[in-house]
Amino acid sequence: xxxxxxxxxITVRRNISIIGVILCLxxxxxxxxxxxxxxxxxxxxxxxxxxxxxxxxxxSVLPGAGLPSGNPDSPGIEPWEEASGKIDAFxxxxxxxxxxxSALRIxxxxxxxxxxxYNLARAAFEMADPxxxxxxxxxxxxxxxxxxxxxxxxxxxxxxxxxxKKGEIALVKFQEEIDKIGESPGIRDYLAEMRxxxxxxxxxxxxxxxxxxxxxxxxxxxxxxIFTNADLxxxxxxxxxxxxxxxxxxxxxxxxxxxxxxxxxxxxxxxxQSIKPDIKNEIFRSLILGQAS
Amino acid sequence: MIASNVxxxxxxxxxxIKLAGRADRLLAEKVGVxxxxxxxxxxxxxxPGGIQMTKELKNCVEETKNKTPDPLSPNxxxxxxxxxxxxxxxxxxxxWYGLIFPERAIFPVLDPDSEYIKNLKNLYPELDLKDxxxxxxxxxxxxxxxxxxxxxxWRMAMLVLDVVAEFxxxxxxxxxxxxxxxxxxxxxxxxFSKPDFESYHAWSPFLRHALSSTLNGVLDARQxxxxxDKWLTAMLGALATVREKAEDGDNYILGLFRGKGYPLLIxxxxxxxxxxxxxxxxxxxxxxxxxxxxxxxxxVKDNTNFRYFFQDHWGDLLRAGLCSAEKHGPKMLExxxxxxxxxxxxxxxxLSTATDxxxxxQEVVFKITYAALGAVSSNPDLILDDVEPEWLKKxxxxxxxxxxxxxxxxxxxxxxxxxxxxxxxxxMAEYPELIIKEPGLVQKLVGSTLKAVGSxxxxxxxxxxxxAAVKASLEVVVRNPDLLDTxxxxxxxxxxxxxxxxxxSKKISRIQAADIVTAAAxxxxxxxxxxxxxxxxxxxxxxxTVVEVAGGDHAKLIAGATxxxxxxxxxxxxxxxxxxxxxxxLVTELGNRLTKVLDAGLTCAVEELGYHMDVSSLPxxxxxxxxxxxxxxxxxxxxxxxxxxxxxxxxxxxTAA
Lengths: 293, 657
What we know:
Largest sheet of chain B: 2 strands, antiparallel
Strand content of chain A: under 5%
Oligomer: heterodimer
Helix content of chain B: over 70%
Distance between the termini of chain A: 97 Å
Number of strands of chain A: 0
Number of helices of chain B: 33
Largest sheet of chain A: none
């Protein structure tokens, strides 16, 4: 005979109350994603402010970008100050999360650098703990912090002898980092491009022909090395249009388009300085000097 | 029932809250670390370059040099000085250029980011750059490679595992009914869930933690399984005490568990103790183990080499202690300052300062410790009267020097060397009086012998000879410890060296060499004074002479075991009649005389085989001929001489009978 088991009303009530307790606590737990939300806000705000720093330079580029120009509740406080303050406040309450704190310090450093706050940027970088920097991007930026601050801050027109010395050191240090981060093409391309500009700017401002040529060759020849054969073929075939129907910018298209700007700058340097550099890469030589091998 | 269900519900809820909180922190870190970052490129300036400005300034200076009034006055000389330099200061050039040619000194700004957006718009008109996300994506720079081995997905999984482990630790009773098993599982889980798993960035520390928590958890729950085995209880109790007392106790204990000697201690040492020792002494053993491990902890902390050594060998040291207690009785364990404790402490300290201690194998460490404990047992004053006993230092250093000698290590296989040294240490353990008399015996006898035969290319040959030489000499020395004060060890070393050379030249085999050196070891005891004379070369000369004669014998009568026997008997004859054979001559003359007698004897033997003798009689007959020669009973050594023939036949008949 099969006997059906039934639950007594007391058992049912008891189980319901247990489940109720659990559900209530689960509900409480589910709302406990406050930290993640704060970090998302910090990340989004800092990225937006980086874009603002570009727009400030040339507001015609992104008409109607619609980005905030300041906090209406806190008049007189710049948006970057507010964003940087948020990072400080967050870190003050989460100082035990060393990895997160160090990553945010690097972000804060770059934000301040973009807004011309060099001393604050230096302080932010120094508060990052290199032991807890986990990604190639953050580590490279931290390692190059002094050179980044120097390059963002320095006058690109009146270049002193001291700045040439600093520039030479920066070229070496940048290359060391670039060589280490080949597996992280995003940050590698950024640093390689910046290095190329440092070298080209030094070549432009140098008064001795041999040294100007040396800076130029170092900058362009090393920069050309980050380009793949596919990139170079795209540059070679460039006739004013790179592609069509694209709806997103890939890492490769960014590298190619930004490469064209570097090449344009290189051509200007050669034109005004009348130097004859030895450019190793055939495509770059052809695009800059107009010579085929 | 209701209470337990509510407790479980609360436990689950706590777990969920904890999981949510820690997941939030982990995900926040993920966002902060791996989110894209928009990076800007600083602006540049264009305009005239340094070389161009220098040229134009030079032209200006040249063109205006005779003009009146001077347009460059009062700065002409400064500009001229600047332009004379091979590399004029670029900042100065720009400054003067701006003053003299203000209309040309225009340095337009180049903003790479603006240029980039312009190009994007031109080249990809389809891109909607008004869209915030598209615009931002054009500048995003990813985090790149994460240096950590464990990614966020794994860390999230580990977080869940951690919370589950903690939940399991709190609610073990729900899943496991057996009380003993439950307490073990609970012990493991509690430790397993202690740190936050998601904080691990690499596998190695995580796995180390897993192992550590398992072992330590087992230790925590030892009451559950140790049962009636008092010795195992004592061992685990000592480890638990050390873990509490030692700095960084968990890791220290983990290291001890990982050591190679630990399994042998448990499987052999403790099981032997449980069977043969009175369990009342287990408490004394526990104190000794705890003391030794506690004393070792600071030595281990600052010395990486010793740490690894100690981890591997603490089990061997304690195993030797248990074996010693078994052999020498409870006096090793009892008293206020037990001999076992004192001796082990001195050994540990001595080993911690030895540079090559890590070269000692498990077996050697065990046997040498066992031997030292034996010596102490037979003479407690050895350890009690001296704070840092020199004898013990000498005993350990002699073993380490032997094993660590580069020449020796190259010439022998690891196993071969270990077998020889541990065999010698084993003999010393059986006869502690050897250690008392000569604690450096291993170096003196074993080390020298190994070096002497180390020139052989074939390590098997070298090991066979060395092994036999060491074994034989130790057997002799055990019976006659006073020989250690004589040149006996050197004599045997010389003999082993000559045998090695003979093996190398293929005149004898390694088996023969091993047998010969054993025979020589025995023979030399018969007259150590005589053999010690002539720079200790007498025995070696006899051996070489016989081998040469055997090699020149076309009939090959002296071969194999016969060769060994001939040498053994002749060495005996030399021991008893050597002075007569030599007279006042050099040792080489003995070789010539023996050669002559043996050659003649072999010629006769070829004729007499089957008539008066067989090959088995040959060693005795040849030895008899040499004895007769020494006595002066042979005046002419010639196989055709009737008197020689008569003597030979007589000896052969006598031997055959």
